[in-house]
Amino acid sequence: MTKIDATDQKILRELTRDAKQSNLELAARINLSPSATLRRVQELERQGVIKGYRAVLDPAALGVGFIAYVTVGLNTHSKAAQEAFERAVARAPQVSECHNITGTVEYLLRVEATDLAAYKHWHTDVMGVLPQVRAITTYVVMGSPKDLRA
Question: By the 8 A CB rule, do 115 and 65 touch?
Fold first, then answer.
């Protein structure tokens, strides 16, 4: 396990806030020299703490007007059922996240669609036809006052 000190935590917090900032800007924000900052960032990348950099997209600008978190319960708890479900989810462009979770259901999905009609199509014609799906519960996102996903 990688040891993360207070300076590394500052670097990670700043890069999470704005990964596009220059090394000079980052160094100034964390009160460290640019060369030391660069070495630390490169080491965090080498160790796999920083796995990559992503763009934060505006769903509305992309035509996404409906976002929901969806729980999915399977009717059998076999490895084959899970793998088949995960393959189906991987093919669905509406699903931006898929998490295998504990509790009364097996999966939590983040689903993004243009509108309610498009979501209904996904719900009925994509998820609703999978033989391993037992239950689907939808939680519509009404707002996101905190969202640190990159």
Answer: yes
Q: What would the CATH number be for the domain defined by 60-140?
A: 3.30.70.920
Reference 88, options 69, 72, 104; nearest CA is: 72
Q: Do domains 6-46 and 60-140 have the same CATH topology?
A: no
- Token couple for 115: 């509108």
Q: Taking phi first (over 0 means left), then psi (-120 to 50 degrees means alpha), and beta for anything else, what does residue 103 get?
A: left
pTM of structure: 0.82
Return the CATH number of the domain spanning residue range 6-46.
1.10.10
Reported as a single tens digit per residue, the pLDDT across 103-148 is 999 999 999 999 999 999 999 999 999 999 999 999 999 999 998 8
